[in-house]
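Researcher: Let's do a round of design. I'm pasting the structure tokens now; please hold your answer until I've finished.
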């Protein structure tokens, strides 16, 4: 279930990003209106606004700050890499504990 939710969130982010890139709305003078297709997209849009990734040039017209978008993307990827490394370390520790338990050997000091 969590994987499906993550996929929906990722898709919403991609759709939002595509909306602004397709319109070349990457500067204030190129701002465009945005209407979310669904609630997930609306929440992601609001989060991107809160992080100053999407900025309002004038009422109802928005643009995507590419530098802020890239920084956020790099931050998310770094977090994902960290999570993967922690999970791999936990898996390796569990395997080692299992090997020691199965062979009746003590853990090294």
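Researcher: That's everything. Go ahead.
Model: Designed sequence:
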């Amino acid at each position: 279930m969590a994987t499906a939710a993550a996929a929906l969130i990722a898709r919403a982010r991609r759709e939002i990003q595509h909306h602004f890139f397709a319109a070349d709305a990457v500067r204030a003078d190129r701002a465009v209106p945005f209407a979310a297709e669904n609630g997930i997209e609306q929440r992601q849009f609001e989060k991107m606004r809160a992080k100053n990734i999407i900025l309002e040039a004038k009422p109802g017209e928005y643009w995507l700050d590419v530098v802020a978008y890239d920084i956020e993307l790099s931050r998310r990827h770094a977090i994902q890499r960290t999570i993967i490394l922690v999970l791999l370390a936990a898996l390796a520790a569990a395997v080692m504990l299992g090997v020691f338990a199965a062979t009746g050997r003590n853990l090294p000091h």
